[in-house]
Please model this.
Amino acid sequence: MIKLGGSIITNKAKFGEFREENAKALSRVISDSGHEAIIIHGAGSFGHIKAMDYHLNVPGQIEGKTGKIAEVIGDVLTLNSLIVGTMIREGINAFSLPPHSIFPITDKDYELIDHLLRNRFVPVLYGDIIVSDGDYRIISGDEIALEMAKKFSPEEVIFVTDVDGLFTSDPKKDKNARLIGKVRAPEIDIGYGDIDATGSMRGKVERIKEILKYTKKVLIVNGNYPDRLGKALRNEDTTGTVIT
Model:
């Protein structure tokens, strides 16, 4: 299972800016690997900016917010279409699965995903807004990764981010921060990360700890260097963090 972070496939500081070259390069190495996979991507600037502006980052009642919810759902669907189109052009049998159409997920939905995998499609899900029983909430790509891990127990889960991995401190603020090459989940204590619509690095790590109950290892690699993902998919040593 591969999670492409929103910061890698979009410019998170500018609404609706798709990082097409990154998406192409990452799709190419995934395609070349030939792996059966589930792919999940973040919403990036297509989702986070408006979600924060419209105060949709806090779960609540749909009433009075229908238009804004629909707008953000449409925007992240646009991003998904761009990603899926790029993947198909690079040789991936990508099959879009909008989370707002299948969550809260049922056994029937899991059967659909299993059916796609058996027929050599690559399910592509993404951070989205889901609605149910008059309420709405954001569902992050990391949460989806956990749900998929619970059901499908992937051999490994790779998080493709805009940093090299886990560090001793925030590498964007501390020039003396050191990359942690390998670590066991119980040893991790992360206290940095800017707040966005779905949480922070601390939240990501807590989700990773849960995911590790259902997979052998989690890797974090920097998507600005696509060959690092390629090496990870080939089981070669690469720059990043391995969490077990």
In short: The CA atoms of residues 1 and 37 lie 5 Å apart. The chain has one domain: 2-243.
